[in-house]
Write a sequence for this structure.
């Protein structure tokens, strides 16, 4: 039995060949690749067959597409295709990695002086559809506690995506799998935070993952579906506040109040830059979260949303009317 399962929830065709090519070119191949075809309209099996003599690869086509509505459930059923490999790597159908990525992972777990952790991750570069590097995500330290990583992640000082993680099957099973959010919004962040709670997160040096911003993956076009996806991120904010309740009673470098304040900043930045604003019909739910979960007053919540709308839209008259109505009801 090989030690590493590389699991690919597959749907898109455009860069699938590039992803498999980067795995087929690894300097160490002590892994099995499991493909879970989410009832794609494309002939992914044809691409898989081209690598059947280069990779230990198992292909399954699901008869029903579920990723369009429940990406986390698609991740889960793809992981269930794997056997009993000790390590799980949820890869992507459009990202690529350095050729020494697997070798670097096995090297770091052999040399880990403090014992094997549950979560390891690669530093990440962002590439475009042509494979050109268009940005680097912030580089994390060699080791970091879960709460330190979460705090920096919320402030935009860490990179984090599902394909740049390798985690133990043990921690996956102990926590019941991935953290669910609608459309998997920040589900990768939450899962990373949860899985690293006991032993922290360790960086895999000397190799990088290249996350593709192609304009066709969900993250690239989130703003076009913000009405649906915003609720997923609100679920994440609620989850992270509830998860770190233990910091109130446990002295740590990172305090609960620091996480809460960082969550406020994250929510603002995600709405402004990722979703490119908030629609008026979503304002009441957003205000409710700001008040109940982030301990903001009604006035603070209104001013927060007003600032977001002012920064993302020149048409704020309708928002001002809504704010006035809410304020009058509060009196």
């Amino acid at each position: 039995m090989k030690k590493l399962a590389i699991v690919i929830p597959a749907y898109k065709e455009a860069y699938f060949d590039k992803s498999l090519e980067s795995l087929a070119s690894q300097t160490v191949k002590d892994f099995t690749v499991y493909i879970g075809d989410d009832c794609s309209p494309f002939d992914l099996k044809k691409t898989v067959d081209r690598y059947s003599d280069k990779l230990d690869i198992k292909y399954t086509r699901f008869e029903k597409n579920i990723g369009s509505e429940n990406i986390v459930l698609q991740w889960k059923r793809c992981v269930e295709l794997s056997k009993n490999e000790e390590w799980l790597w949820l890869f992507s159908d459009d990202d690529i990695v350095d050729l020494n990525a697997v070798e670097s992972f096995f090297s770091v777990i052999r040399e880990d002086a403090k014992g094997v952790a549950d979560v390891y991750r690669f530093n990440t570069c962002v590439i475009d559809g042509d494979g050109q590097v268009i940005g680097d995500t912030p580089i994390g330290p060699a080791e970091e506690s879960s709460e330190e990583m979460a705090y920096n992640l919320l402030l935009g000082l860490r990179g984090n995506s599902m394909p740049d993680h390798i985690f133990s099957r043990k921690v996956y099973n102990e926590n019941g799998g991935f953290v669910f959010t609608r459309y998997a919004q920040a589900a990768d962040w939450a899962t990373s935070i949860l899985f690293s709670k006991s032993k922290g997160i360790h960086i895999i040096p000397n190799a990088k993952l290249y996350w593709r911003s192609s304009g066709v993956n969900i993250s690239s076009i989130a703003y076009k579906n913000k009405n649906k996806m915003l609720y997923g991120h609100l679920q994440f904010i609620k989850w992270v506040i509830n998860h770190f309740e233990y910091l109130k009673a446990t002295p740590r470098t990172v305090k609960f109040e620091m996480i809460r304040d960082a969550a406020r900043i994250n929510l603002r930045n995600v709405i402004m830059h990722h979703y490119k604003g908030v629609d008026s019909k979503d304002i009441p739910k957003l205000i409710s979260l700001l008040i109940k979960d982030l301990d903001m007053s009604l006035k603070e919540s209104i001013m927060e949303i007003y600032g977001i709308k002012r920064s993302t839209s020149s048409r704020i008259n309708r928002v001002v009317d809504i704010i006035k109505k809410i304020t009058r009801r509060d009196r």
About this structure: Strands lie at 4-10, 31-37, 57-61, 87-90, 96-97, 119-127, 133-136, 143-144, 165-168, 201-212. The chain has two domains: 4-217, 220-330.
